[in-house]
Amino acid sequence: MATINDIPDVILSNIFASISDTRTRNSLSLVSRKFMLLDRATRVSLTLRGNARDLFMIPTCFRSVTDLDLSFLSPWGHSLLSSPLSDTDPQLLAHRLRVAFPAVTSLTVYARSPLTIKILVQQWPGLKRVKLVRWHQRLASWPIGEDFVCLLEQCENLNWLDLSTFYYWTEDLPPVLQACPKVSASLVHLNLLTTSFAEGFKSQEIKEITTACPNLKNFLVACNFDPRYIGFVGDETLLAVANNCPKLTLLHLADTSSLTDVRGDPDNEGFTSEDAMVTKGTLVEFFSGLPLLQELVLDVGRNVRDTSMALEMLNSKCKDLRVLKLGQFHGICLANESQLDGIALCSGLEELSIKNCGDLTDMGLIAIGRGCSKLSRFEVQGCKRITEKGLRTMACLLRNTLVKVKISCCKNLDAAASLRSVEPIRDQIQCLHIDCVWNGWEEIGNSEQVGLSFWHNQVEEPSSLFSLMGSEYDHEMRRKKCKFSSDVSDGYILENNGFWCKKWDRLQYLSLWIGVGELLKPLPAAGLLNCPNLEEIRIKVEGDCRGRSKPSERAFGLSSLALYPRLSKMQLDCSETIGYALTAPSGQMDLSLWERFFLNGIGELRLSELDYWPPQDRDVNHRSLSLPAAGLLAECLELRKLFIHGTAHEHFMMFLLKIPNLRDVQLREDYYPAPENDMSTEMRAGSCSRFEAALNRRHILD
Q: Where do the TM regions start and end (predicted)?
C-alpha cells in the first residue's frame, strides 16, 4: 500500500508550500525528519522569539523565509540593535540576521530609535513590505522625518508600509514622501491608522500624502472630523482622496475618537453635539470617484445626516463593494414602505458594521436583511432604537449566510435579549460578541435553566413585524418560521436534571464586554450554557474602580467558564479598568485586590494560551502585574503561552515557573505611552533575561 512518503518530493514540496497556517506547519514538521526538512525548505513566514543578545540561537535553516517578524524579540520594547546586556556590535547582529535570512522582502520590527531602521534596511535593500512598531514616545530632539528617511531612500522596491502600531508625529511623514517621489508612487498599501494619535492627520497632510502616492490601493488613516479643530477633514478632503487615488480598493477614514476601544455613554441616543462637514452631494461624488472600492470604513465620530440617498449610489458606483463600516451616519435606511432604500440596496455586501446610528429602527434592520442577503458578518453598536424583534427577524432572513455577529452598547439589547435575537442562527454562528448587561439575570445565576416551551414562544415573534412589510413578505416569513420551528428541537439537548438547554454547535469565538464590579456567572443562565466547540474567549472589563465598594462576591466568575470543554485560549483585557495602583483611600480597594477579584478561579480553566492586560492607574501611567495576580496565574497548570501586556516585578514573574509546561512568556508594554524608565525594577532588561533563562532551563515533558 502506498503511503504519503511515496509521493515525489516535488509534489510534497508544493503541498507544504500551500499550507500557510503556522500551527499546521509546526505539527507537520514533527511527523518525520523528511517532513521537518520539507517544512524548513518551504516556510516563507517566520516570527522570531528569544533574546536578541543570543547570536548563537539565530536559526540558519530557514533559507526560504521572505516574511520576517522581529518585533517580539526579548527584552520586548528595548532597542534591537543595542542590547543593554552585551557589547554586541549592532552591525554584527544585523549581519547575522541577513546571513540567516537572505531572501527577506517583508520585515516587521520594533524600532525604538531611527538607528534600528537605518541598520536593518542596509542589510535588506530589496525590502518590499515593512511594518514598524513603537509604543514608546518619539524624542523631540530627532529631526522631522528621521524615522522614514533611510527607509524610503534605500528601499527602492518598497510598496507596502504599515505604521498602525508605530508612534511618530504626523508632520514626520508627508515631507519624506514628497522628497522620495519614485518610492511614494510605487506604494500600493499605506496604513496610518495609528491608535496612539491624539488628533490624527490634518486635512492638508492627507492631501499631500495622497498626492505623493497616486497608486495607492489600500489607504487607512486616522484623522479628525470635528469642525471645531484646525485641519479637520470635510468635503474638500474626501474629494481630494478620491481624485488623487482613484485606484483605491480599500479605504479607512476613522476619527481618532473612534479608535479607542471604550464603550460609549449608554444614555446617548446616537447623535453628537456637532455635525461633520460632510454633505450628501459630496458623498455621491466621493463614491463615484472610487469605482474599484471593495472595503470602505467611514467612522467619522460626528453626525452625518440624511445619508440614505448617497448610500444608494454605492450599489451602482462601487459594484465590487463587499465590506462597509459606517460610524455616526444617520438616515442610512428609512424603511418607510416595503420598497428598499439606502444601504439596503447594497446587495453585494458580505460584511456590514453600523455604529452610533441614531435613527436606525427594527424596520431598517429588516430592510437590510432583505436587501443585503449575502451578509456573513454583521455588527451593530450604539444603536438605541433597535430591539430584539428587529434583530431576530433580520437573523431569520440571513439564516443561510450570517456566521459572525457583534451586538454592543444597544440600550434595548441586554445579554439575554442579544442571545435570543441570534437564536435563528444559533446552529451556525461561529463568532459572537455581546455585552454582559444582565438586567436581573444576575439573581438567577447558574441554578435555573430555560425550558423549551419558552424558546418556542420566542421563535414565533418575528412574523408580527413582517406583517407590516406586506403580504408577500408575511407569507415568506411564515414559510421560514414553520421550517425553523420544525427543526428547532434538533439544537436542544436534554440535561440530567430534566431541563432542555440550547446548543451552540459551531460557536468557536466569544467576545464579551462587562462593566467593572459585575459578575460573569449569569452568562450560562442567560443562554450560553452549551457551547461544545467554543475554543477562544475575549473578555473586556471596563470602568472606574475608584469610589466603588468591595464586590459582594469574592470572585468575578471565571470558574463558570469551565463548563465549555474545548475552551483553551483567553484574552482577559482589564486595561480600561481604572483604579489606585498604590495606596487606596480608606474603605476602597487598590488594583491588587481588584486583580484578585478578576482572576480568582482562573486555575479551574484548562487554558493553553492567555493574554492578560492588567488594570491601570492613569495618574501614574502604571499597568503592572500584582502579587495576587501572579499567584493566581501560577495556578493555570496547563498554560503554554502567557503574554502580559504590562509590567511586572522579577520576583512576581518567578511564580510562573511553577507552571510545568509553560514555554512562552513575555511582558509587552504595547500601549501608549509605554514606560520610559528602563531602570525600574519592573522594566529592567536584566530581569526579563534572568526570568527567560530560568524558564528555558526547565525540562518540558512533551
A: none
